[in-house]
Amino acid sequence: MEKKIAQISDIHFGEKNFSQQLKDNLLNQLKEENPDLIIVSGDLTTNGYIHEYEKASEFVEELKSITDTYTIPGNHDARNVGLIHFERLIGPRKFIHVDKSGGFAIVGLDSSEPDINDGQIGLDQMNWLRKQMEKLPSDLCKIVTFHHHLLPIPQTGRERNILLDSGDLLRVFSECGVDFVLNGHKHVPNVWMIEKMVTINSGTATTRKLRGYTFPSHNQLIIRDNDIQVNLINTETGSKKEMANYSVRVEGEEYVICSYKHLLNNG
């Protein structure tokens, strides 16, 4: 069994560096790749205004015409009371998706805080996450997504807005057996592994608000019985390169990452 997940982030409707051409490229690339699931890891808008959300809503509907799509908010979406528009035009701010045939489950959380760039998950969401994880079979790959990065990212400058409660969240993830974490926020693709848990960051898919030699991009996860491959797709050119590969198996009744290979070089 093989399943494809497209992870895109930081669309930023309303941003001066937003590119309609990149958006069109992204949609065409997603149609060509034909993923089983699309995850949008936050920042659909720039300032949370209604006219930005209206464009974002049209975009999400285009994504849904390709395949099942889930979206969680980012810090920019929470500006100017923007989360009321998110809930009305986009959908719930957290979600759970279980694919037993594909061998994985994804939980989405809202890490945004109104009108600030900092983020946190909070005790209520952590308790909700624990309850969702308790319901899941232990032999599934467990994936969590939220906007703010859980760990510092190279080549993003001074760390000012990592999750405020990242330590508490890391403990919850460890206790619940989370295998993969998908984030956005800093517009720089990256992969880390800590305590047998992988964090995968997505770049910005549709803007040229870029750092260093990075390029507009999104991520692709290919989940197979014995491995998970992570690809970086250039939204400008459509070129694809492997970021990482993880050997996986079920030991007893537990899903385990056995070994890994990281290939990403941000230059």
Topology:
Layout: E1 3-8, H1 20-33, E2 37-40, H2 50-66, E3 68-71, H3 83-90, E4 95-99, E5 104-108, H4 122-135, E6 141-145, H5 166-176, E7 180-183, E8 190-194, E9 197-201, E10 217-223, E11 227-234, E12 240-251, E13 254-262
Parallel strand pairs: 1-2, 2-3, 5-6, 6-7, 7-9
Antiparallel strand pairs: 1-10, 4-5, 8-9, 10-11, 11-12, 12-13
Give structural notes.
The structure is a single chain. By secondary structure, the chain is of the alpha/beta class. It has a single domain (3-262), classed as Metallo-dependent phosphatases (Purple Acid Phosphatase, chain A, domain 2, 4-Layer Sandwich), CATH 3.60.21.10. It is 24% helix and 30% strand. It has 5 helices and 13 strands. The protein has helices spanning 20-33, 50-66, 83-90, 122-135, 166-176; strands at 3-8, 37-40, 68-71, 95-99, 104-108, 141-145, 180-183, 190-194, 197-201, 217-223, 227-234, 240-251, 254-262. The strands form 2 sheets. It has a 7-stranded mixed sheet, covered by helices on one side. It has a 6-stranded mixed sheet with strand order 4-5-6-7-9-8, covered by helices on one side. Helix 4 (122-135) links the parallel strand 5 (104-108) and strand 6. Helix 2 packs parallel to helix 3 (83-90). The mean pLDDT is 95.
